[in-house]
Each structure stands twice: as C-alpha cells, then as structure tokens.
Specification:
about 45% helix
C-alpha cells in the first residue's frame, strides 16, 4: 500500500513539474494560485488558495478555502476561515477557525491549535490533537488526543483515545480490536462493532479514497493550466455550443468513432505508421482530458458573469464527480470526449474556411 501511495504521489509530482515552467504562481480576483516544486505562502490571502508542489507551506491567514496537493503539506497559519481540502503523503494542520477539513494522506497530524467544525480524514496514521465539532475518519492507527465536541465515528485497525482525548457526543468504532481508552471514556460510552477486516483491507479503503481525491485535485490543477493557456479558445467555445450545437455534436460523434479506426489503418503502411501512432496518441490524450475540458466549458456556461476561476473550479468538480459514478461515469466520459473532439474538428474546419475566404 505504501508503495502504491508513493507511486501516485510521484506521478502527480511529475505532472506538476512538467507544468511548472508556465504555471508558477497566479494571483487573480483575490485568489492565490501557486504550482511549483516548493510553495511558500507567507502573505495573507483574502480569497481561496489553489496550490500544488512537492512541499506546500501556508503560514498566514486565509479568508477562503485552501485546496492543495503535494508530498508534504504544512498549514500553520493564524486562521483559515474557509475549508481545507488536501491530499499529501505527510500532512500537518495547525490553524484556527476552519470550517471543515477534508483530507487524505499517509501520515496526518492535526495540531493542538486547530479548531474546526467537522473533520473528514482518510489515512494510514492519524493523530488528532485539536478541537472540532465532529470527527469522521478511516485508517490504520487513529489517535484522539484532543476534544471532539460532538460525534466521533472511525473505521480503523486501532483506535487510541489518549490522555487529553475528550468526546462529548456519540462514539462509533469499527475495528478488529477494542479501542484503547483513557479515564474519561469507558467502553460503555462506545458503540463498538468488531470487524474482521485486516489492515490491508482498511488500507485499501483509505487508498481508494486517497487516490480519488488525488485524481480530482490533479484534474483541477490541469484544468487551471489548460484554461490559462487557452483562455481565448474557451471564450469562443461557450458561444459555439449554444449557436452551433448540431455540427459540434455530429462532428464529435464521427471523430470519436472514425479517428481510432483511421489511425489503426495507417499502421498497415510503413509511411503511415508514424502518423497513425501520433494520431492515436493524441486521440487518447484528448479522451483522457475531455472531462476536464468539458468541465471548464460547462462551468463557464452555468456560472456566467462569475469569477472565471470559480467557473473552472465548479465545472471540473461537477463533471469529475459524475465521471466517478458507475454506469453514469462511462456515459459522461463518452459524451465529454465526443463534444471536445467536436469542438476541435469544428474549429479546424472554421480555420480552413477562414483561410479560403481570405484567398
């Protein structure tokens, strides 16, 4: 499990480093964007933070949400008034006034200065020393050494309620062995359900949640980079989908079916082999990125006259969440692929037509 987690993080880092040259840091509409190897945010941010890198450090106050991915993430600002949503191998949070914390990682440490409403965690080793109104987690070893002024529900191999651990609400524990508790808590206070799950099964569950969160955050990062690079094309594509839906849909359906067939036919000839390989590679890249691109277009259509980065964020999250659903996810991916290919084919046709008219 550790090797798989490290592999996913390594893959994400490769993606981040590849876009580092053109997505270093962007500050727009009070939101802070930073994508590079080492990110150090030492100034107050009046909007949201969107960041990724090998190491991400947030030291000052944040009015909005903090969304980050990396190998190591340290959030030790004075306060964060919005939500914290992160994925990392090592995650340290020690900030006040957080709304909700939703995070996944191998090692997660919630410091004693942390105050939050609800906390949702998936990780291997989780150590909670802060104060929250609800705690929900899955992992291998979970240590509660802070105050939960509400309900606690965990699924793990081992739960330890340490000396400073205090839970005022209901306690639900799903584990192969009984939790270790302090003098403030007795087993009579705990709804304990003994499970037969092994450590590997718990790790698989945590890993699935971790990899899903990583994939969504990676989609957001790629989406922001694509939008920044091709902003003008997205502005025109919004109007095209409304004004010219039929040629885009028909062109997308045709290219979705015919392009791989034509590419494979090119493999037959020696001259056409390189072109066939290139076209097939481009086809799969477009299909893979299509939910992200479609999310940008959808967000711009639904949230007109809103902050463009909010449009991108909302659109990508909606499409990516739908793409994760059984059956519906396949349909969303296919439709997204067809529409994106339709935009490309229609745009290519319009550029040729424009050149002919000029001649």
């Amino acid at each position: 499990m550790k090797k798989k987690g490290i592999f996913i993080l390594t893959l994400l880092m490769m993606i981040l480093f590849s876009v580092n040259s053109f997505a270093d840091s962007i500050d727009s509409a009070s939101n802070y964007f930073a994508f590079k190897e080492n990110v150090n945010i030492t100034e107050d941010v009046s909007g949201d933070i969107y960041s990724a890198g090998r190491e991400v450090n947030v030291e000052n106050s944040v009015v909005g949400d903090t969304i980050a991915a990396g190998e190591i993430i340290n959030i030790k600002s004075k306060e964060i008034r919005g939500n914290v949503r992160c994925a990392a191998q090592t995650l340290n949070i020690d900030s006040k006034n957080i709304k909700n914390i939703t995070c996944a990682g191998q090692n997660i440490d919630i410091g004693k200065n942390t105050t939050a409403k609800a906390i949702y965690l998936a990780g291997q080793n989780i150590n909670f020393k802060g104060n929250c109104e609800g705690f929900y987690a899955t992992g291998q070893t979970i240590i509660i050494n802070g105050k939960v002024d509400g309900n606690l529900r965990v699924s793990c191999d081992e739960l330890i309620i340490a000396d400073n651990g205090d839970i005022t609400g209901e306690i639900e524990v799903y584990s192969p062995k009984e939790p270790i508790v302090n003098s403030k808590v007795s087993m009579n206070d705990i709804k304990y359900v003994k499970t037969e799950k092994s450590a590997d099964q718990n790790n698989i569950k945590a890993f699935v949640g971790f990899s899903t969160l990583i994939s969504i955050i990676a989609s957001l990062i790629i989406g922001f980079v694509i939008y920044i690079l091709f902003k003008k094309l997205f502005i025109s594509s919004d109007e095209l989908l409304v004004k010219e839906p039929l040629p885009i849909v028909l062109g997308g359906m045709a290219s979705f079916i015919l392009l791989p067939i034509v590419s494979l036919l090119l493999f037959i000839t020696i001259i056409g082999l390189p072109l066939g390989m290139l076209s097939l590679l481009l086809y799969f890249i477009i299909v893979y990125l299509s939910p992200v691109i479609m999310g940008i277009i959808l967000g711009r259509l639904i949230l007109k006259n809103k902050n463009p980065y909010l449009q991108v964020l909302a659109g990508i999250i909606v499409v990516r969440l739908l793409s994760l659903l059984p059956i519906i996810g396949t349909f969303v991916w296919v439709v997204s692929s067809m529409l994106v290919l339709g935009f490309i084919v229609y745009g290519f046709y319009q550029s040729i037509k424009y050149k002919e008219n000029r001649i």
